[in-house]
Amino acid sequence: MEKLLNELSSESAAAYNVACDVESDCVIPENLKRKSSPGLVNIPENDLQRHFTNLSRQNYALSTVFYPLGSCTMKYNPLVNERIAKFDGFNGLHPLQPEETLQGALEIMYNLQKDLCEISGMDSFTLQPAAGAHGEFTGLLIIAKYFKSVKQKRTKIIVPDSAHGTNPASAAFAGFEIIPLKSEADGSINPEKLKEILTSEVAAIMLTVPNTLGVFEKNIAQISKLAHENGSLLYYDGANLNAVMGYARPGDLGFDVMHINLHKTFSTPHGGGGPGSGPVGVKAFLEPFLPVPQIEIKNSKYILNYKKPKSIGKMKAFFGNFPIILRAYAYIKALGADGLKNASGQAVLNANYMLSKLKDKISVPAGGRCMHEFVLSPKSVFQNGVHTLDVAKRLLDYGYYAPTIYFPLIVEEAIMVEPTETESKETLDKFIEVLSKIILEESVCDSQKVKDAPVNTSVARLNEVEAARKPILKAVGN
């Protein structure tokens, strides 16, 4: 394990020089002088550099390893977009500046909203929400206010068990009652089961398309028809938009409200809790309810319109997470329509290639075809008390970050893999080889090695519950 700085320090190492630029005739008052040494560590510069470099190498990063993290799109993002987001002209802006001095930034946000409308088939967007779940909450508040405006009391939201886990939480937070809907084996919705719970109290159905098993909703046209005939709305969780982008638009599929995860789909390094941005798009009849301010053009100038009497109000300080907006704008403009479509096509191709190599060896609950991600269930292969968590830990020993495990909850011992569009065939082949070796060989022949994993990392397996609830954030003496 890497030593702490105070452990590396040595009194014999003259590692720093404190220069004093105070003129000699300037006397420092006694009350301002230190009473004791500042306790600076003595470490030569090269040792200090190696210390922090070695620490950084203990982290898993897209710049060093493959991240097969299902449902999160941990893909490589062009570094040029990072540079664009750091331009002085953007970083020097302040959101309280007068509108006339923010015209460039407002133009970018206005144009990004238009681009998102084109990509999604929606009529209007807001860039305010800070992340996907915040976008869900915003969209649900819009739905609630819409029904209040038409004097309908609709208090329930239908959420299938194949939807993203934040959906029921967001709906409950927005004040709705959740009606769970059991999906079919492949995660799809049975229209007949939907009919049984569609009542005049249902405000909306929240769907993730493709669903969390990586399967496109084959009954979407019928579901949309049933929902709208019931007077209900259809909400699209855009977390998996990168699987259909350029091929299908949620607005054309019948969805009325949706959020897009800019940080998953459009060029922001995602992980470790952020950063994020979750713009919300709506059909025209819901546009009056979008958060304020809305960016509009008046007399050839971009303005911030706060005068929207039906608006749900402000959802975030100022106008959105601007650095994330910049990255998304640069990504979309660089790729264009054909490039975005190709990104989706490559993501789906990579996922199906991996699935084709694994489906005859390991159980695949949703069948042999998928969209951008797939879910394995190796329960029938495991022997001698090995579980999916053990496989995830063993992958660390081979230098891979683990895929998503135990999600979706409807699959026992689930392993969710999302290769994304940016990984090479060579990378995919190596991961397939390692994953197959762990599940099909080590878990059977050398199960103890898998259950003891990881053994090559700087820290052995943690008690994850204790680590999350009672983290030790400083060094503890012997």
Automatic annotation (TrEMBL):
<dbReference type="InterPro" id="IPR049316">
    <property type="entry name" value="GDC-P_C"/>
</dbReference>
<keyword id="KW-0560">Oxidoreductase</keyword>
<dbReference type="Pfam" id="PF21478">
    <property type="entry name" value="GcvP2_C"/>
</dbReference>
<dbReference type="GO" id="GO:0030170">
    <property type="term" value="F:pyridoxal phosphate binding"/>
</dbReference>
<dbReference type="GO" id="GO:0016594">
    <property type="term" value="F:glycine binding"/>
</dbReference>
<dbReference type="Pfam" id="PF02347">
    <property type="entry name" value="GDC-P"/>
</dbReference>
<dbReference type="InterPro" id="IPR015422">
    <property type="entry name" value="PyrdxlP-dep_Trfase_small"/>
</dbReference>
<keyword id="KW-0663">Pyridoxal phosphate</keyword>
<feature type="domain" description="Glycine cleavage system P-protein N-terminal">
    <location>
        <begin position="27"/>
        <end position="284"/>
    </location>
</feature>
<dbReference type="InterPro" id="IPR015421">
    <property type="entry name" value="PyrdxlP-dep_Trfase_major"/>
</dbReference>
<dbReference type="GO" id="GO:0019464">
    <property type="term" value="P:glycine decarboxylation via glycine cleavage system"/>
</dbReference>
<protein>
    <recommendedName>
        <fullName>glycine dehydrogenase (aminomethyl-transferring)</fullName>
        <ecNumber>1.4.4.2</ecNumber>
    </recommendedName>
</protein>
<dbReference type="InterPro" id="IPR020581">
    <property type="entry name" value="GDC_P"/>
</dbReference>
<dbReference type="GO" id="GO:0005960">
    <property type="term" value="C:glycine cleavage complex"/>
</dbReference>
<dbReference type="GO" id="GO:0004375">
    <property type="term" value="F:glycine dehydrogenase (decarboxylating) activity"/>
</dbReference>
<comment type="function">
    <text>The glycine cleavage system catalyzes the degradation of glycine. The P protein binds the alpha-amino group of glycine through its pyridoxal phosphate cofactor; CO(2) is released and the remaining methylamine moiety is then transferred to the lipoamide cofactor of the H protein.</text>
</comment>
<dbReference type="InterPro" id="IPR049315">
    <property type="entry name" value="GDC-P_N"/>
</dbReference>
<dbReference type="GO" id="GO:0005829">
    <property type="term" value="C:cytosol"/>
</dbReference>
<dbReference type="InterPro" id="IPR015424">
    <property type="entry name" value="PyrdxlP-dep_Trfase"/>
</dbReference>
<feature type="domain" description="Glycine dehydrogenase C-terminal">
    <location>
        <begin position="343"/>
        <end position="448"/>
    </location>
</feature>
